[in-house]
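Issue: copy button drops trailing tokens. Both records pasted manually instead:
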Amino acid sequence: MTAAGWPEEDTDDPPALGGRWRRLSVRAFGRLAALAEAEGERWVLWLPVAFGAGVSLYFGLRQEPAWWSGVAAVAGCAALLMAVRRRLAAAGAAMALLMLAAGFLVAQAHSYRVAAPALSHSVAAAIVTGRVMAVERRPGATRITLRDATVSKLMPDRTPASLRIRLSDRFPAPAPGSVVRLRATLLPPQAPAEPGSFDFQRRAWFMGLGATGFATGPAELVEAPPVTGWSVIAVAFEQARGVIAGRVAAAIGDPVEASVTTALLNGEEFGIPESTMDDFRNSGLAHLLSISGLHVGIAAGILFYVVRALFAAVPYVALRWPIKKIAALFGILSALAYTLLVGAPLPTVRSVLMTGMVMGAIMLDRHPLSMRLVAFAGLVTVAMDPEGMLGPSFQMSFAAVVALIAAFERGSVRLAEWRRDAGWLVRGLFYVGGILLTSVVATLATLPFSLFIFSRSPSMACCRT
């Protein structure tokens, strides 16, 4: 042993070793700082990540924080940003903290906004009266959602704002917008079956759904004034979904084929038998039944190309009007109308935001596909529905889109150079290869989520965008 206490067989001098590590650390930090500075134009892409981290922080708490905590955090981070705004690195860190605090505040405010009474115990044989806002047609039963309900065995301040009740197919289903009275047994929203599984209780809270149950008799119509306000639009689109389902059932004799066709048209997957749904899941095609990027893109693209073709057929209009931009406006309106028709689920909202950004970029003569597009869609989607960020639909769809855009950003220039001087056969191979590459990238991006959530790996099917 030496006087310093180190073994004699060690060849490296400890102080020199420590200095070497310090130099390596400084060098590594310098490279990271240079890389961060070079990526300065893309710092904005991390703002939605910080915002989502704030939302995750709120939902990760074991108990509800004080009502003022989110406001205080945002105010403190805003003050810090103003204090360091002249120093670029410090201002970037302060902006990230501000977005994290903003995500926490938005999630907290959303929780307070949707707060409504929820059933804490079962209520048997109660007389329930309410307005039908949604009708879900299922094999052997019909499930209705009631709003502005009254329950005979509950006080008004204890009555949930929204109820979901199942009716037997032996009784006729009420029309959307009508007010009905029925006898039903009500149950609290079901808690998770095991730790880490789907938490329907939490999802029901954010949906304003305070109870579920089943009717023990038919639903009787009650005289009531018609719906008013925004509910008129919701009821109209709900009725349109019913009309579509009825016409499909009348045109297609096979009930399984009719249910699948209905799901592809208006998003109602409830009528598909469980065995058929298992076949879709095992084949990796279940995502086609979820109304998202594929369906919204078709809805917007058809009207975009039809309007543009019609305007291009008129020389006076084609030479004087910006027909491409006008067609893009019609594409946005078509996507919005289709989103309302299918009930505006979270994947559809995300898709219509991105479709709107693409069409808006066309109208402004900008590049339509970029990572900023995804960042904007993610930020708005999380702000509209913070709780939805915890679900697999949000996580897997954004993982696939981000991976696809990142992959093609890196390889698009080289691929364009290869295709420029290629013949028609090689171009065809490039097209096929692009489809395969899209499937591989999307599958690898969603693989961790699929394994963790569903305990299965996704098939190599082209993922929706």
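Record 2 (pasted manually too):
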Amino acid sequence: MPALAVADRLRSKGFEVTFAGARGRTEAELVPRAGYPIDLLDLAGIDRRNPVKAARAAGLAAMAVPGARKILRDRRPDVVMGGGGFVAGPAGLAAITLGIPLVLTEADRHLGLANRLLKGRADVLCLAFDSPGVSGPNVVVTGRPVEKAVLDGDRDRARSRFGIGEGRKCLLIVGGSLGARSINRVAVEAFADPASRDFDVIQISGVRDHPEVGDLLASAGDPVGYTLLEYEPDLGDCLAAADLVLGRSGGSVFELAATGTPAILVPYPHATGDHQTSNAEWMASAGAAVIVADDDLDPVGLKALASDLLDDDERLRDMAAASSSLARPDAAEHVADLVADAAGVAS
């Protein structure tokens, strides 16, 4: 999504933009839907807890480099931007070997493997956060690009879409494109009963968890004031409708900041370099979020925390202001300008 946000800015500057991605991943659907062509390679994530899967992923990445070089020879780009994801390493290495300018972007406080390997050869490394130990003449803190649709979310329209009544609060639960199983399960236990809450709920379960969450809600009688979505590529409406978010703390913390949304953040405990904890602490230290450890999730405590926050208008306002203070609404434009500069085009 950050890469698409930058692509939109580049297209507005007259660039022709194409993508490279991993076959079978969300970009294979999202990129064409956004109107951009995409070339696909066979890649997989490196699972450090499983040596066999890690070795297979490393092998696929090595075999993808020639394929990435072919894509770049066919497309003949003036510049390559690494937007994260499995393809960033092979495509970035291919760009370097072909002498094509390379701009890297990092959405988390912890540099991903591809960025750690390629940062010394890149023209620019764009950081979402000021990351300790990451510095140099080619390092720029830009913030994380956020889609214009998120920035332009309309609260009245969004609340009408989800049937949220005048003066009623809304909790948004979101864990990612696949889902966050621990959050999804506990959330249904905590909030399914409409008699025990005085706010509405929107839950984005993710593709993997949607059948299970749907069954849990069905057995709870499909409660009123509870909207279940499988996946929402544009979070603009959901964030505009929400007064509080419960979710993970990946790069999407910048979408929370962009919309000034208070949050209960549950860092994914197995994230690389524990970067989600760092992201959550960035929000919490400003007063924009409350952190709950994944192991500490329980329906009674979660319901009490969410209810207390949603009942405290003054605290919600303070958290919203703190969240907004962290926002970098110009991040996509800034990264697009750096990409244009690397391509030798006046921005």
